[in-house]
Amino acid sequence: MNLGVLALQVSMKILQLTQARDNPGTISAEATFAPLQKLLLAALVSRYEGKTEKQKNPFPENTLSWAAWVIARIGGWKGYRSQSTPGPITMYRGLAKFDHLWEAWNLMKDV
Fold it and tell me: Which CATH architecture has domain 2-110?
């Protein structure tokens, strides 16, 4: 039962991120991420944004769409609008890598 709840929690995050990439609204990133996780996302934006305007995050900061863009970039999406939009598999890969980065960030913060 615990494993089922954990799988449901992860799948809900992936679904929220996938829907947010298509519906840029005013939903806060705190709907899915903790306030400290938003700080890590903000730090990662500069790393994953490209040099051209087409590769910059087009969404307002601290919205769920903004966070979905970052997670998709971490998951391997190139960021161009001419590409197909990132799907659930890309969001899953990005979320898994983000969780690893989050753990490392917490370890380094305590040192």
Answer: Orthogonal Bundle (1.10)
